[in-house]
Structure prediction request, 1083 residues.
Amino acid sequence: MWLFLTRVGAMAGKETLHIRRDPLTLWLGLALPLFLLILFGFGISFDLDHIPLAVVDQDNTTESRELRQLFTAGSEFVFAGALDNPDDALDAFAKSQAHAVLTIPEGYAAALSRGENVEVGLILDAADANSAQQALARADAFAQLASAQAAQRRGLDIAGSMPVSARTWTRYNPAGRSALFLVPGVTAYVMALVSVLLTALAVSKEWEQGSMEQLFATPVRRAEIVVGKLLPYLGMGIIQVLLVLVAGTWIFGLPTNGNGLVVALGSLLFMVGMLGQGLLISIVARNQMVASLTAVMTAMLPSMLLSGFMFPVENMPLPLRTLSNMVPARYYIQVLRGTLLKDNGFAELAVPLMLLAAFATLMMVVSTVMFKRKLA
Amino acid sequence: MSAVTAAGPFRWLVQLWAVVVKEVRQTVQDKRIMALIVIAPFLQLVLLGFAIDLDVDQVPTIVVDMDRTPESRHAVAALMADGSLTAVGTAGSPSDADAALDRGDAAVVLIVPEGYARDLARGEPTQVQVLLDGTDPTRSGIAGGAAVRYFGEQGFSLAKQRLAAVAPDVQISAIDVRSRLAYNPSLSTPIYMVPGIAGMLLLIITTIVTAMGLSREREVGTLEQIRVTPLPTAVLMLGKVLPFVAVGLFDVTLALTAGVYIFDVPIRGSMLDFYIVTSLFLLTTVGVGLFLAAVSKTQQQAFVGAFLFILPAILLSGTMTPIHAMPDWMQPMTLLNPLRFYLEAIRAILLKGASLSDVPVQTAALLVYGLLILGFASLLFRKRLD
Amino acid sequence: MSASPAIVVDKLTRRYGDFTAVNDVSFQVEKGEIFGYLGANGAGKTTTIRMLCGLLSPSEGDAIVAGHQLSKNPERIKRAIGYMSQKFSLYTELTLKANLEFFGGAYGLWGKALRRRIAEVVELVDLQGRENVVTGDLPGGMRQRVALAGAILHSPDILFLDEPTAGVDPLARRRFWTLIRSLAESGTTIFVTTHYMDEAEYCARVGLMVAGRLPALDTPDGLKKHFVPGRLWVVRGPDLLTGDAAARLSALPGAIDVQTMGAGLRLRVQHDAPITEQTLQQALARPVEIDQDEANLEDVFLAVVDADSQQAGTAKAFGGS
Ligand SMILES: Nc1ncnc2c1ncn2[C@@H]1O[C@H](COP(=O)(O)OP(=O)(O)OP(=O)(O)O)[C@@H](O)[C@H]1O
Ligand SMILES: [Mg+2]
Prediction:
């Protein structure tokens, strides 16, 4: 055991030296997660606001102008200009000048004053289906509001005496801020990427430069190489997680609920798993280009799309849901969201923690085994 | 004693051909690289095309019906019928439901108060409570919205009925929105996402392969051997770039085929326009790859650099979040992003039937960025004599 | 051979920050000559070659290579030179033929001319039948010949070889030098660096670099005369390495230095020292075997390094051409 520790220590020391000799990579490794956190934290938003709306006002009355104002006063739509004809809508879409066109028909004000029903037209650039859907829902709400206002103008207050209504209470994230939802996801995503990338080249570089053969000539055992290679990156990873979580709290006001021990354990297990995945890739690839492409293909997009970071896993077809069960970022996100936002503890998060541990163990074991095999 | 060599303009063609052949041989002889740059992107596209569906429906809901009347049961059933919410269980008391929310068993708790049916009958206002798990704001927004809309409509029509009962000749006008969904009437997400993913994959592969390929030559010393030959830098660059532009065009064709046959992505514009903007885009991605190789000493540095370019480019492309929804300070940054312009252009061409003249800004931006970065990379490369 | 030299180096200097890797070096290499470049690790040999090949820009000074000025016309120089770098730098994942096709193409060779030239070169380096072997799978000695083949494809006037035989077995080294000499005989100028003194003996002239400077340059014989003057004796016998044998020899009149050599001692004395076999026998007072010895380049190397470290400032007095 003592021998194991000294040899692992020697390996780790050597690897640390390598990292330190390339300060650029070291600093990038430390700065990258922060940079990505800020970029993703601010850049991703599910509040699809500011949809550019063009208006065709065929009525041209006070009422029609009020309707336009009603639509564009809030943050949902921004006025992108007036069009003469609804037929110009497609042209405006093709040139990306507007994403929606509202048509107020001639006779709009007259119909309202008579209490008749009236239809306004809304043409949507539905290429981006999500934006279109949100625009649709909001337009409906505005129309309902406009009809209530029209009734009110005629002395009929129906909005004030609704016989039945629903009232909502939001728990955990009452302000509905995307950032609170996203920051744990971003943390997991960024850590997944950076860990895999850092280690993906760690061994393949040595294969390429031939220093691996030299290592095999020494009595160092495979498991010791694997652990030793991993340790310095784990140290770096722990600093990164801390940096990201502190920055997340500080910049995005992430609540600091929950059991710190659960967060620490989850982070550690997750990091070991992801570093192990990177190491495995580099052991199998033996070539830096293969290693880096594999790392990107297995970490960059799957951790983003299959982890529940941005897209809810529940909505995916069964085969993908099955696949997403194999993405460790998914469990780490569960742990982070659970503790930080919901104040969960070991009891609620036992399953994801166990799965993270299982993944980490699997990666370490497979790495060691593959390493032996590569030698034969 | 000099051997016979080709002369004049013919000479650089010979040199270019030599570089291209070498590059192809190197790539082809490693089957894993071939798999990674040809098959893997295709698989990813198909998989991820299915994965991305922002539609939120069937949000798990726990019902606490404290009224237990036909009216309350009807209201719950009608709300569930809409599809946004789905009942996964019932609870006897609001505090039980609360615990379920904590455990994550449900994301919504719907509480119908005692006396709901009685109050409705008496014409007294009554209120349904909806408790939402706000961790995912999109989901909670949609779930809450569905409940509010349903009961709002109920209230509106009940109010109208009552008004009609007291004053039969007063009309209330309803403003309806008659909507038309251009390009994508079924509101399919993949139609939008597939071109986005294709562009991302193209960016990832061509940038990394060129950046690492060239820095590998530096690392193992072959670059030095090349530099003592009269091979001009520009020819070397071009020769290294062409095969990967070809791979990129092949990949994008594959992706488009998958998009059309699996996800019903329409092709409304001209394929020629599509390939022109794709080539312009590839000019930039390989240019960035060469630039990274020119400034880095090792493959690892080139890789980290590529990564540092790729991720923000993906994020700022408008695929994950529409550009108009980004914070104001971030929007101008997307103007530096070739992926943004490429995706705008191909979406316009494929989905909206635009031609190049409809997307002049995007086309020009890609061309300018491509030439600038390639020129800059060549310059740096030539300058860097260590 | 025409009169103008193949290479004229004029006060070439290369600095890395504060460190001067090549310091004010000047020399000439004649056409068709095998010019050897010696020096300790880090002396600046590779740096000099890389500057002459246009791979590295000099901090100061200039050179004329194959009739073209380095600072003005590096592109023309490239066509006239071949370079084999210290590290194997062909594509290890490609076959011999693919490598040669690529580098031939880079020099503008193509079609039939390229194929013919590849066949010629492969025959010259004696690698027929291995055209389709991946170069990474070849043994070290063959790899060196592959690299040489790549460097001479375009029939360069000048060939720069940076430690071409490092790590190669003695037999392969000899074969390699036979090749180099035949190239020189057919008119190619050879500029070669090496750590092997026996190889340096093959060179028409040898330059010796110490810490970035070139304090010595001459024919091997000239160097020996200049830097290792005097006569050499080798004494072999029992118990020479223990006891006072070395001290007794150094005490002889006219003795310059004493070194151990195997189980014996090697004594260098001044030319006119009154020393014979008898004086040596007497001095040691025991039966020994005594031989006259020749100075070799290793002696020169050590002497130059020694002299240089003693009077680094005035080293210029020795050197130059
Ligand atoms: N890019 C560089 N930056 C800083 N110092 C350098 C650089 N390249 C070379 N040197 C230094 O310049 C000196 C000369 O190196 P050079 O490679 O020319 O030596 P050499 O004579 O070829 O040695 P060897 O026999 O080991 O090949 C060395 O001390 C080396 O460390
Ligand atoms: Mg050297």
In short: Chain A has a mean pLDDT of 82. The domain at 51-161 of chain A is CATH 3.40.1710.10 (abc type-2 transporter like fold).
